[in-house]
Amino acid sequence: MGKLTVRALRAVLAVVLTGTVFVQALMAWTLVSGSDPEDGSVPLTALRVSTILGMVSVQVALVCVGRLVTMVRRGTVFSHAAFRYVDGVIGAIVAAALVWFAVTVINAPGQRDDPGVTVIMGGVGVAILGVALIVLVLRMLLAQAVARDVEAAQMQAELDEVI
User: Are 55 and 20 in contact, with CB atoms under 8 Å apart?
Assistant: First the structure.
């Protein structure tokens, strides 16, 4: 991975992380200050709490991806230490899907006239879980690469002994 790519990715991660912290702070301030303009049509307090929790899952994923980028840059990504961060990304995606399903449930009573919106939101939640499954498949590929790397190192050590 080139230096420009790493810098660009780190810049994007930093901007998104800053944005999520800003959104969390605004949501928390609105909840704590009591200046919630809720008019009763939508349970905004529950949606704000869901937003804060969703942002936490995004932040966990961002930190894990940042650590993986550092490992790629150092050439240590094909090690058992990388699994911790990949598992963190998978967990964060699953948590985001669960938060999305909660938002769908919170929003469903307001959609009695048009239940298609609730169905579409449920479909989005399933799609988010699909992303977690894709990352899980990539984790399995990483596991195979790590196993092959270990096997190659053992074979190289045996070859060095013979020579």
Answer: yes
Q: What is the mean pLDDT of each run of 10 residues along the chain (163 residues)?
A: 87 96 89 68 77 95 95 89 95 96 88 86 96 96 90 86 81
DSSP 106-143: HHGGGGSS-THHHHHHHHHHHHHHHHHHHHHHHHHHHH
Handedness of CA 155, 158, 162, 163 (dihedral sign): positive
Question: What is the greatest pairwise CA distance in the chain?
Answer: 80
CB of 139 within 8 A of CB of 86? yes
- pTM, entire model: 0.84
Q: How far apart are the C-alpha atoms of 41 and 102, rounded to whole Å?
A: 17
